[in-house]
């Protein structure tokens, strides 16, 4: 059981603050007797689209074996990648002596920059009841996605997802679990399968997969609370 837990909730691109608070409260209740430290990072659509940045100073002082990251949606993967880069992982410089963490929960991620899934994700993240703001932003994003596909530009989501399978970030004695769904309209289960297979091929420690049948994006605990909590509670 970890002594310190960093629960990193990120509502950008499909996961709302209200949704992720359900999981944060669950972690607090489960670990209250250990008195862990919690770090919850929220970000929005502007953080996802802005240049990569991060501050890992609050993380590097901890023993990696005592840190649990809970990454929500593609926005969470983005922030995780930024923190890894800030700590010197995956850069051209010397590799840090220790990984960023050894335990990782990947929730409704990672996805790809496909048109339909990205539009649904951003549509849910933008403010409701404000069409003057919402529809121009959706139009701009739609144009960008079309240009990206036509010109064959690299997929930024695929690039940031590489940090999750970087041996210098988690190490080969790590453990991870993917929570995903066949009915997720934002992150397709095939994308998660592909990423998990890569982790297996690289022998990046223990790789577990929890595939749900009907749950929506970042809503797997609603379909089967006991299954989710039982998996999280395992060492």
Name a few traits of the molecule:
235 residues, alpha/beta, Rossmann fold, four-stranded parallel beta sheet, 10 helices, 10% strand, transmembrane helix, transmembrane, membrane
What does this structure look like?
There is one protein chain. With 235 residues, the protein is of the alpha/beta class. The chain has one domain: Rossmann fold (3-Layer(aba) Sandwich). It has ten helices and four strands, in the order ααβαβααααβαβαα. The chain has helices spanning 17-31, 45-49, 73-86, 115-125, 131-151, 156-161, 167-170, 189-201, 220-223, 225-233; strands at 68-72, 103-107, 175-181, 206-212. It has a four-stranded parallel sheet, with helices on both faces. Helix 3 links the parallel strand 1 (68-72) and strand 2 (103-107). Helix 4 (115-125) packs antiparallel against helix 5 (131-151). It is globular and about 45 Å long.
Total number of beta strands: 4
Structural class: alpha/beta
Cα distance, first to last residue?
A: 6 Å
Task: Classify the helix fraction into a percent range.
Answer: 40-55%
CATH topology: Rossmann fold
One letter per element, helices H and strands E, the order comes to: HHEHEHHHHEHEHH
Record the strand order, biggest sheet: 1-2-3-4
**Rg over CA atoms:** 17 Å
* Main sheet characteristics: 4 strands, parallel
In total, the number of domains comes to 1
Number of helices: 10
CATH class: Alpha Beta
Q: State the low-pLDDT regions, or none.
A: 1-13
Shape: globular
Work out the strand percent. 5-15%
The averaged pLDDT comes out at 77
CATH architecture: 3-Layer(aba) Sandwich
